[in-house]
Design goal:
single chain; 215 residues; 85% helix; mainly alpha
């Protein structure tokens, strides 16, 4: 399983590298914003506004990239017959599918874990004199994860097509739709439930197609 996960990440190394670099950029931005209390106070803002700005406005390209990652994984597999080749090496379809999902979750964690650690350090070590709503910060991360999860699931579902360009475009449309849902529902656990349900349905559908496809 670990070998298959490494292969999935290696095949998409450029995307994973970009996600890691972008995550570092966001962490630096978080640190910068949280160390500017005088500016925040003069604008009448608080840490929740800065966190929202960084996580939902500056991370918006990453949702498209995660969706494209899922679509590319599936379309590349279909076009290059990767599963068929691995199947000759005694790797089961189920193991390949689980490794693909694991690689997708790792991509999401590459983005969110550094930001979560940065927020924890800022909360514990820096006295910025501005009240922090921990429930809001927690909800931010939950919504972010569920949105990434939904985008990735949508990408996987779209990717199992003969036309790779159409698959990527379809994942972009799904991502736009999911972000639009957030703009309508706002910060709530209802939108989390919608994203998680959508992601699960897409993954089940994509998994069924993958596991039952002819070699």
């Amino acid at each position: 399983m670990l070998t298959l996960i490494k292969r999935e990440i290696r095949d998409m190394f450029v995307i994973y590298l970009f996600l890691a670099v972008y995550a570092v950029f966001i962490c630096i931005s978080l640190w910068y914003f949280h160390n500017r209390p005088s500016c925040n106070e003069s604008l009448g803002l608080d840490i929740n506004f800065d966190g929202t700005l960084v996580m939902f406005f500056w991370t918006w390209p990453l949702y498209f990239i995660i969706g494209t990652l899922g679509a590319t994984q599936m379309s590349l597999d279909k076009s290059q017959k990767i599963s068929s080749f691995l199947n000759t090496l005694a790797a089961t379809r189920r193991a390949m599918w689980l490794s693909r999902l694991s690689a997708g979750i790792i991509a999401i964690l590459i983005i969110l874990v550094p930001m979560a650690i940065t927020e924890m350090i800022l909360y514990q070590k820096i006295n910025i004199g501005i009240p922090i709503n921990l429930n809001m910060l927690y909800l931010l991360f939950v919504i972010s994860f569920s949105l990434f999860f939904a985008c990735y699931g949508g990408g996987l579902m779209c990717g199992w097509r003969s036309n790779s360009i159409f698959a990527r475009l379809a994942s972009v449309v799904i991502t736009v739709t999911l972000i639009t849902i957030f703009s309508i529902k706002g910060f709530s656990y209802e939108v989390v439930a919608i994203y998680l349900a959508f992601g699960v349905v897409c993954i089940i559908r994509a998994g069924y197609k993958f596991l039952n496809a002819s070699l």
